[in-house]
Design goal:
The structure holds two protein chains of two kinds.
Chain A lengths: L1 H4 L5 H9 L18 H6 L4 H31 L9 H4 L3 E3 L5 E3 L1 H37 L7 H21 L29 H30 L12 H33 L9 E2 L2 E2 L7 H35 L6 H14 L15 H13 L1 H15 L8 H23 L2 H7 L3 H31 L1 E2 L2 H27 L19 H31 L1 E2 L38 E3 L2 E3 L8 H9 L1
Antiparallel strand pairs in A: 1-2, 3-4, 5-6, 7-8
Chain B lengths: L14 H29 L10 H26 L2 H31 L8 H33 L6 H30 L1
Helix pairs in contact in B: 1-4, 1-5, 2-3, 2-5, 3-4, 4-5
The chains are: A mainly alpha, B mainly alpha.
Chain lengths: 619, 190
């Protein structure tokens, strides 16, 4: 196989042939063992590239579901008086008809939709869909490894994710409804089956699904960290890694340290629900009856949840930051500005993310002096974040920028990250948080800074590495339509929400009928809903483009279409198992030698020239 | 982590061993969360004080001893002393079972002493935390059981693969041992 594929040797092949490292992978009796038939190739695949595609397509599926759910509750918020009877064929008993035949969405269903939208987007799309996809695709390819340290655990990681999704999907169709107590699942709503109709079977399945999900994250994370630290090719020191790999490394470490804490919290919750312990439940009366639970602390759950919950937002955003750094540098034809500062800011964000969890609990009754400490650490996070933003802008400055879909999304990411990051400074202050807590200001903040921004990073990555995944390009025209509608639309959705929030409109409410003070916002809510529908339709353009291009996209004719330096573009166009048909390339320089001297770019596999060696020596 | 021979560059550490350490780090975080939750809840008052059952101290001795025996078994395995290696390995397995049994007796003693799983959270915490630890010991015992099987079936060959596996087994076993000592000291003095 190796001989037929590299019949014509280009300069890249010659470099690998000359300086590469022969690990006898293809001579080895089990080197190619993983892909033999349809099932082991497409379904129970142990090849990291196929697993990446599985994560991505599953993530797209969940993004569509999660987006649709948000449209349903946006319809309720924008048009609470309208007749929703036309939704009855889809939603059945969750659309309630009154005597006049006017249908409205039932409050239980509305709360379940809000909860499921949060759970699906945070965990299934922006954790598994984002870092699952790009960690699997990029880690072995960019570090010069044949595959992950354990392809088997890698496969299990996907299938646990799949199983978690199956359970959650099924819970949407329960006759009692999906869990409806918010994606954070605070007790007592989550701990007492009698609290609401979704707190029974819906919550049990939510808990099971999320536990399976954590198993997936841990199996994946162990694999990613082990692979990055142990399987790098010769010459690829940590300071020569592309920033994508640094970001994915810190992401995986955050996951390994924080998700087990969530499991602890869930286990105690399980005991409260099913065994009758009182970890979180204190004296509660339901229907005039006192429950047996005595002496529990619901705040305890909040501590455990947010000890995961806050690192989780960096688990979501760091891979996007890594992708954006890489895409911006390649498409500006400039070395990334401040490489080491970028690495240190990733590490600083990762470290600080463990010291700020209580800023989600400022109004839960924590000691104001304790809150001060958390305010301090929260605001310090602005420093590494600002370093990153400055470096991205400085990378763009004076570059020969290509305005393709991938780079537009990377630039859009920077815009979103600035807009959303600034409101974080408001919310991080415990005094201002008293007014803004649990209002639409919070909704606007986190949707822009980690929802839309992370999506932008993901889109940048998908458009950029699509040829590496499928050997074809996505359509640029459709990509640009997708970008501009999404960019403008996302601001149209979330910008007005800041005003709602400053006025004190609380999030998660089913309707504001009985609040005279919020009545003049109904026009704004309609506007937001219409914008949301528009943005959702634009995402369908992406989905169509994605699947159309798999079969009919423009073919990738050269190995390295963007003129990129990193190792993934030295593999054959149709990358087989083991990634390189012959030797493994070795690395001689960092990943960002763009516009160096009279060269447009110098790949990492090219040894230093005599001139470069002299320059190094003289420094 | 079977793909160890695929790496191009030897960094002196088996990826599988490194992966185990990451797993151990995750498990440690889980227990850090449990014990932090314990401290937070204890600080809020309404906390039942009770003495740990004596069985827990016996189980501590047992698991300490088993750490010693598995360590010696590994040494004899490397030096080719087949008889000692097998004996000590079997003793480790039996001691591991003994640990789980004494934990169970400890829970029974707590129950008889009036400390219920569904009672005051101070008791619930001890049940749940020691229970989750016992599950991790059972996981180790399952791996040890595979080792026991191999000990009867496979010839005593010190191959790289078996050495790595044995080393990982020893490291994991020491970990659950140290974890339990931490937990007992935590329950006693916190």
């Amino acid at each position: 196989m190796a001989q037929t594929q590299v019949a014509v040797k280009d300069a890249t092949d010659q470099l690998i042939e000359k300086y590469g490292f022969d690990d006898h992978f293809h001579d080895h009796h089990d080197g190619d063992k993983y892909q033999t038939n349809f099932i082991t190739h497409y379904i129970f695949s142990m090849d990291h590239k196929m697993i990446a595609k599985q994560f991505l397509t599953t993530g797209i599926f969940w993004a569509i579901i999660g987006g649709l759910l948000s449209l349903i509750f946006r319809l309720q918020l924008g048009f609470p008086e309208e007749n929703m009877a036309w939704l009855k064929p889809f939603l059945g008993k969750w659309v309630v008809l009154n005597d006049a035949g006017i249908g409205s969405i039932s409050p239980e269903f509305y709360y379940a939709m809000v909860t499921m939208h949060g759970t699906i987007l945070v965990f299934f799309v922006l954790t598994a869909g984002l870092s699952g996809t790009f960690a699997n695709l990029l880690i072995p390819l960019q570090i010069g490894a044949r595959d992950m340290a354990s392809p088997f655990l890698n496969m299990l990681s996907y299938w646990f994710f799949f199983l978690a999704g199956l359970v959650l999907f099924f819970s949407l169709f329960l006759s009692t409804g999906a869990f409806s107590g918010g994606w954070v699942a605070y007790p007592p709503l989550s701990a007492l089956p009698q609290a609401s109709s979704g707190s029974g079977a819906g919550m049990t399945m939510w808990l099971l699904s999320l536990t399976l999900f954590v198993v997936s994250v841990l199996l994946g994370g162990i694999n990613y960290v082990t692979t990055i630290l142990n399987l790098r090719t010769r010459g690829l020191s940590m300071w020569r890694l592309p920033l994508t790999i640094w970001a994915l490394l810190v992401t995986a470490i955050l996951g390994l340290l924080s998700f087990p804490v969530l499991v602890s919290g869930f286990l105690l919750l399980f005991f409260d629900r099913s065994v009758g312990t009182s970890f979180y439940l204190s004296e509660i009366f339901i229907g005039g009856q006192a429950l047996d639970h005595v002496g529990g602390s619901p705040i305890l759950y909040q501590h455990l949840f947010w000890f995961l919950g806050h690192p989780e937002v960096y688990i979501i955003i760091l891979p996007a930051m890594g992708i954006v750094s890489e895409v911006l540098a390649i498409h500006s034809r400039k070395p990334i500005f401040g490489y080491k500062a970028m690495v240190f800011s990733i590490l600083a964000i990762g470290f600080l993310s463990f010291l700020v969890w209580a800023h989600h609990m400022f109004v839960s009754g924590i000691n104001p002096y304790m809150a001060m400490i958390f305010v301090l650490f929260t605001l310090i996070i602005a420093v590494p974040s600002a370093v990153k933003v400055f470096n991205w802008l400085a990378t763009l400055y004076g570059g020969s920028i290509r305005f393709n879909s991938a780079n537009l999304y990377a630039i859009g990411f920077v815009s979103m990250f600035i807009s959303g990051g600034l409101t974080g400074i408001f919310l991080g202050n415990s005094a201002i948080d008293i007014q803004l807590h649990d209002t639409y200001f919070v909704v606007a903040h986190f949707h822009i800074v980690m929802g839309v921004a992370a999506f932008f990073g993901m889109f940048a990555g998908v458009y950029h590495w699509y040829p590496k995944m499928y050997g074809r390009f996505m359509n640029e025209f459709l990509g640009k339509i997708h970008f501009w509608v999404t960019l403008v639309g996302a601001y149209l959705i979330f910008w007005p929400m800041h005003y709602l929030g400053i006025a004190g409109v609380p999030r998660r409410y089913y309707s504001f009928d009985s609040f005279e003070t919020f009545s003049h916002f109904s026009g704004m809510n309609q506007f937001i809903t219409v914008s949301a529908i528009l943005v959702f339709v634009a995402q369908l353009v992406f989905v169509i483009n994605f699947f159309y291009s798999i079969w009919y996209g423009k073919k990738m004719k050269v190995k390295n279409p963007y003129g990129a330096t990193s190792l993934e573009w030295t593999t054959p166009i149709k990358t087989g198992h083991g990634n390189w048909p012959g030797k493994i390339p070795t690395v001689h320089r960092w990943a960002y030698d763009y516009s160096k001297g009279d060269r447009d770019f110098i790949p990492q596999i090219e040894p230093l020239s005599e001139e470069e060696k002299e320059n190094m020596a003289s420094h | 982590m079977e793909n160890t021979e695929n790496r191009s560059y030897d960094r002196g550490l088996e990826p599988a061993v490194f992966g185990l350490w990451l797993g151990i780090g995750s498990i440690a975080m889980m227990f850090a969360a449990f014990t932090s939750a314990y401290i937070v809840r204890q600080g809020q008052g309404n906390w039942l004080e009770f003495r740990l059952p004596e069985w827990f101290f016996i189980s501590t001795l047992i698991i300490l001893l088993s750490s010693l025996t598995i360590h010696l078994s590994y040494k004899h395995f490397l030096n080719g002393n087949t008889r000692q290696y097998k004996q000590l390995y079997l003793i480790t397995f039996i001691l591991g079972l003994g640990f789980v049994v004494t934990q169970y007796l400890g829970w029974t003693a707590m129950h008889q002493g009036g400390v219920e799983l569904t009672g005051n959270p101070s008791g619930s915490f001890v049940y749940v935390i020691s229970g989750v630890h016992a599950l991790h010991v059972l996981g180790g015992l399952a791996a040890l059981a595979v080792g026991v099987l191999q000990l009867f079936v496979l010839p005593h060959v010190v191959s790289r693969k078996r050495k790595t596996r044995f080393k990982m087994m020893v490291q994991y076993w020491h970990f659950v041992d140290i974890l339990w000592i931490y937990l007992v000291l935590f329950f006693m003095f916190q």
